[in-house]
Amino acid sequence: MKKIRYETDPHNRLVISDSGKKSGLPKFRRVIDGRFSLDKNNDLSYRVKAPLAEDEQVPRQIKLKGEWSLTDDHRLRLTLDGQGRQTFGDRMTLQGEILDVNKNSLLFAVTTTTKDNTRSTYVLNLEGVWKADENNRLSFRVKREGGRYDILSFGGIWEINKNHQIVYRYEKARLIRKKSLTHTLVFKGYWDIKDAVRISYILGKGTDSSFDFNTSAGVFKEGYIKYELGIGLAARSDPVRRTVTLSGKWNLKKDAGLIFEAEYENNKTKKIVFGADARLTDRDTVSFRLRNDTDNKDIGADLKLSRKIFKGDGEAFLRLLKDNRESAVYAGAAWRW
Fold it and tell me: Could you say which DSSP state residue 176 is in?
C-alpha cells in the first residue's frame, strides 16, 4: 500500500505527500483546497473543495483519526494514529485561535486561504468536559468514541476577576506585524465547596465540567470565604499563588441548612449550602463545625457568627439551640422543630 503523509500548510489547507517523507519538491506534494470538520466523536475530516484537476485522484472527504492536543502557543494539533495510509505519527497543526469556551465545548476558529486567494473563517466545535489537573491547571478532555478522551492542557496561569469568574489569558504572535496579541477566555460558572482541602468551580448545571482545585484549609468568616492554592507550572520551581475570596452573607434556612450567598455580577447571588454542628458560645455568637450537604462529611472548617444576623428561620434555630444548651444541634436539611 502506498504510504501517504498528511500535513497542513500555513493557510490551513491539507497537504498530501505520497513519499511518506517531508519534501520541498513540488512534484511530491499536493496542496488541496477544502475545510476541516468534526463528527460526533470529535474525529477530524477534510472536505475537499471541487473541482479538482483531472490528475488529482483524491476523495471528496478524507477522514483523519488521531489524538488531539494543544501546542504551547494554543493551537490545535492532531497526531495521526498511523493506521492504514497514515504513517510515521504525522502531526497536523491547525492555525487559528480559541474563539470561546462553553460548559461542554471549546470553539476553535480556523482561517483558510484558497489557491485563488479567497479567505474565509469557520469554527470547529470540540465537545468534552473541563477539569483541573493535579497541579491546578486548566484542561479540556475531548470526548472520543468508546468513552475515551484526549487531554488539551492549558499550561498557563489563570486569574479570578471581580465577578468571581475564572479568566485565562494567553499571548499569540502575529507574524505580519511581529507583535503579540493577548487572547482572553472567561469561564462562566459558580463556586462550590464539598471537601476539606478542595474548592470547585462548576461550569453549569447538568454537566460534568468542573474545576476541582486542591487548596489549603479554607477560612470562613462572617462576610467572606477564602481559600489559597498554588498553580504548578513546568517552567517554575515554585507554584504561582492564587487566592479565591468569595464575598457574601450567611443565612439559615429550615429547608436547606446553613447557606452562604456569594455575590456575583449584576447583583446576582449563588448559594453554597452546608450542614453544620452548631453550639451557642459564651459570647453573643454561634459556633458551627461545617459539613458538606451531600454526604454530611466534615470539611474541617469552623465558623463563628453573630446571633444578630439571623432572621426568620434563624431565630427559630437559635431558640432550639437555647433549649438544648450544652448539646450540639445539627443544622441541615433534616431540621425538625
Answer: T
Cell numbers linked to 255: 429547608
Q: What is the DSSP string of 112-172?
A: EE-TT--EEEEEEEEEEEEEE-TTS-EEEEEE-GGG-EEEEE--S-EEE-TTS-EEEEEEE
Domain boundaries along the sequence of the chain: 5-155, 190-331
> Which amino acid is located at 276 in the chain?
A
Here the cell at position 64 is: 483523519
Tell which residue, 258, 244, 245, has the closest CA to residue 317: 258
Are 119 and 215 a contacting pair, CB within 8 Å?
no
For the segment 276-315, what is each residue's pLDDT rounded down to a tens digit?
Answer: 998 888 778 899 999 988 888 888 899 999 988 888 888 8
Rg (CA), the chain: 27
Residues 63, 43: Cα–Cα separation, whole Å: 8
For residue range 215-273, list pLDDT tens digits in order. 988 899 999 999 999 998 877 778 899 999 999 999 988 888 899 999 888 888 899 99
